[in-house]
Amino acid sequence: MQDNDGTGGHVPVMLERVLELLGPALSGPAPVVVDANLGLGGHSEALLAAHPALHLIGIDRDPFAIDFSTRRLSPYAERTTLVHASSGDLAEVLERAGHTTIDGALFDLGVSSPQLDEAERGFAYSYDAPLDMRMDTSQELTAEQVVNTYPTAELTRILRDYGEERFAPRVAGLITKERAKEAITSTKRLADIVREAIPAATRRTGGNPAKRTFQALRIEVNAELSALEAALPAALDALVLGGRVVVLSYHSLEDRLTKQALTARTRDTSPPGLPVPLPAHQPRFRLLTRGAELPSDEELARNPRAASARLRAAERIRVDD
Ligand SMILES: C[S@@+](CC[C@H](N)C(=O)[O-])C[C@H]1O[C@@H](n2cnc3c(N)ncnc32)[C@H](O)[C@@H]1O
């Protein structure tokens, strides 16, 4: 169902907290923020409205997200640069936009509501559609190709590592057997195969058994983790003194990568045993969140899709000499 604003009732996750955390970094005369996961532009719109001098660089690999946000953010067109790209290319995007340093960065990872809700995009196990799952519809690799061409061992690894699927070898084994009879081309057939592969006792607990397999395939098709591995360090390196980053992740693998990238930069790396810490080894960032913050119960009641959100944030406190 579409609301009047065309956002389908989409509510930006942990919006107040995101604004509060990024705010102090965006109060200068000409601040620049990067929204590395523009989506429907909900966070971006709020940031632009809150900071009248702000220039926003919005990145999304989904051309529909860029189109939608271009319309939504048109009142701020003079203060926005929207780019169809992977956040994995964040450093190049900044360079092309003429901004080698930034004051803030926001990562709101994962899939958008329209990607999940538009059946034909093939992300959802609850609709029957072609097995697609590409965020960037111009890329070649689809979920259908992964499911029908990857060796069984590789499928097992993906299901185990990206989906945390306990029964990965059984699911990958049944996929291999079924695809030998006839190519697996629809979300429904894949969901049925997963259901059949999972032991009956487990099937009765813990929601739809296809959820983990679909998550794993989506991460593989969109190379989500390698994009984050490139994008987050690039954003952190570009932050000025006092610059801030906020990351919203939606599964443990993203959150683990985020935690590692942030904690690596908030440590004193002086060799142990020195009488005084070495200035060049002092932390370049400080954490703004204690562990990962979760959405409030009130937000979860309003927006069940925020359920798996984990928020971490940090501030640049030293720049290299
Ligand atoms: C959760 S949505 C963002 C929602 C947005 N914050 C809002 O308020 O509307 C995530 C978006 O990130 C995009 N995305 C995911 N991985 C990406 C990547 N590596 N590079 C660029 N965009 C990516 C998806 O296409 C999707 O539109």
SSE ordering: HEHEHEHEHHHHHHHHEHEHE
N→C terminal distance: 53 Å
Tally the helices.
14
Mean pLDDT: 93
The count of DSSP E runs of length 2 or more, i.e. the number of strands, is: 7
| Proportion of helical residues | 40-55%
Please outline the major beta sheet.
Answer: 7 strands, mixed
The rounded Rg comes to 21 Å
Strand content: 5-15%
- Secondary structure class reads alpha/beta
Apparent shape: globular
Give me the side-by-side strand order of the main sheet. Answer: 3-2-1-4-5-7-6
Q: Low-confidence stretches at least 5 residues in length (pLDDT < 50)?
A: none
Bound molecules: S-adenosylmethionine
Question: How would you concisely characterize the structure shown here?
Answer:
Helices cover 42% and strands 13% of the residues. It is built from 14 helices and seven strands.
